[in-house]
Write a structure and sequence with these properties.
By secondary structure, the protein is an all-alpha fold. Helices cover about 65% and strands about 0% of the residues. Strands 1-2 form a two-stranded antiparallel sheet. The longest helix has 29 residues, at about 180-210.
Length: about 450
């Protein structure tokens, strides 16, 4: 197939997708959680300290599992999740019963908690798998981004990126008038790499003629610009608040006003085919910002509820915090279905349904990873001294991804572009597609792990 025909074929293949179901998408996201548990358990029980051996184990159990889960095993998601859930409960319960009598002595570290790092790296990992896998026919179309309304696996990506950045945006000091310009300058510097990457992506797409679905963000807009502007505006808004508890009200007002404007005609304007000026050319990206701002501020409120007075806490107190987070997620899931019936769920508009859906997934994964952290310290207690509680126990690959998060996503985008330019991915068979995706992830994870092991931090801003 010649280049022009293939480009049209590729673009048509990505259009008019109505997505999947809320339950299936959550199943795909939560499935790696159980393989992470088994990976950590194996490392703990077998006392594996070799980095190459741990890398191999983690790559097979976590990374390759994610790849298979979104491609050839996608039709068996419910069975996979159920099987892993039963195996995890059986494994954890069988070991915990030997150490429960020591529970009062177990303390959970609260300084840079691992569950937050794992939540962020899991979002990164699933996202970079999908941005390449979506260009192969072994990736189910229902997982790709939806055209206007609906839920797809790739729809939740940008929302969870915003959520993941919000839950680590900690700044206890409210902004004073004298420091306003300094705060603006600080945020401008912090988000400048994303702005630069956004401009580079726009220019490179235009120059190379790379396939781009305009209804995702618009003609010139892209993910990097959305993330940069959301972080910049969100941080400035939050820093004007004296009481951090007011964050939830700001998020509620933002998403409510945004939905009101959408219902009054903004939604029809954004969905329309009109692109007669620069504003209309990028209307999806511009008018979805309030929704992403709501996610960012809400996630900052969520991390604010997870603040602890000391460097470590008793397991009972940590369990209560986990229960609190679980209750928040259950309430959000209830509201998701109400919002879906009333407004629908649209990533393109970042409407109320989408905002609540993303927050429901994000808080649920945080609650589950908090439970994983609690279980880990129970299992670990009899293998170490009680005072040795502050350390990093997460998978090496996931720690490495967090160590150079922007580099990970940037290299993933570069490799995806190179692969798509050099081969017609949509015409490849399933086995060849899987080999390419696995190799791509091996290069990415290998590079990140090397940078992490040798403590090379790629940051110049």
């Amino acid at each position: 197939m010649n280049a022009t025909s293939y480009k049209k074929f590729h673009e048509s293949f990505m259009q008019n997708n109505n997505g999947s179901t809320i339950i299936e998408i959550f199943g795909v996201i939560v499935a790696p959680y159980f393989t992470i548990f088994h990976c950590l358990n194996l490392v703990l029980v077998a006392n594996i300290v070799s980095i190459p051996l741990r890398f191999l184990l983690e790559f097979i159990l976590i990374v390759i599992f994610i790849i298979l889960n979104v491609t050839v095993a996608s039709d068996f998601v419910p069975l996979v999740v159920f099987t892993l859930f039963v195996a995890s409960v059986a494994s954890g319960a069988g070991q915990i019963r030997f150490v429960t009598h020591e529970a009062p002595f177990i303390r959970i570290p609260t300084v840079k908690p691992e569950f937050v790092s794992m939540a962020r790296s899991l979002v990164n990992m699933i996202s970079v798998v999908c941005i390449l896998a979506v260009d192969f026919q072994c990736f189910p179309r229902r997982f790709a981004k939806t055209e206007t309304y609906g839920v797809g696996l790739m729809d939740v990506g940008v929302g969870l990126y915003v959520f993941a950045n919000g839950i680590v945006s900690r700044d206890d000091k409210p902004m004073k008038e004298a420091t306003f310009l300094k705060k603006v300058q600080k945020m401008a510097v912090a988000t400048s790499p994303l702005i630069v990457l956004g401009i580079i992506r726009t220019v490179s797409v235009a120059v190379t003629g790379y396939h781009e679905h305009v209804s995702e963000y618009g003609v010139h807009w892209n993910f990097f610009l959305t993330l940069a502007i959301t972080m910049f505006l969100g941080t400035l808004i939050v820093e004007t608040l004296v009481e951090r508890d007011h964050l939830k009200f700001v998020a509620i007002v933002l998403v409510t006003v945004h939905e009101m404007f959408l219902q009054l005609g903004l939604a029809q304007y954004v969905i329309s085919a009109r692109r007669e000026n620069i504003l209309e050319a990028n209307k999806e990206g511009i008018f979805s910002i309030p929704g992403y701002l709501a996610i960012y501020i809400a996630s900052m409120y969520i991390q604010n509820t997870l603040r602890w007075p000391g460097p470590a806490m008793k397991c009972k107190e940590f369990l209560l915090q986990t229960a609190k987070m679980s209750l928040i997620s259950l309430c959000l899931w209830k509201i998701v279905y109400i919002a879906q019936e009333m407004f629908g769920i649209s990533r393109r508009l970042a409407n109320m349904g989408y905002v609540i859906w993303v927050l429901a997934i994000g808080t649920t994964m945080v609650a589950l990873l908090m439970l994983l952290e609690l279980v880990y310290y129970f299992l670990k207690f009899d293998k170490t001294k009680s005072h040795e509680c502050v350390h990093q126990y997460g998978p090496v690959i996931m720690r490495a991804i967090n160590y150079n998060g922007l580099v990970f996503f940037l290299v993933a985008n570069l490799l995806t572009g190179i692969i798509n330019i050099t081969m017609q991915t949509m015409l490849l068979d399933t086995m060849t597609s899987l080999v390419i995706i696995i190799t791509y992830m091996l290069i990415l994870c290998g590079l990140q792990t090397l940078l992490y092991v040798y403590k090379i931090k790629v940051k110049f801003w």
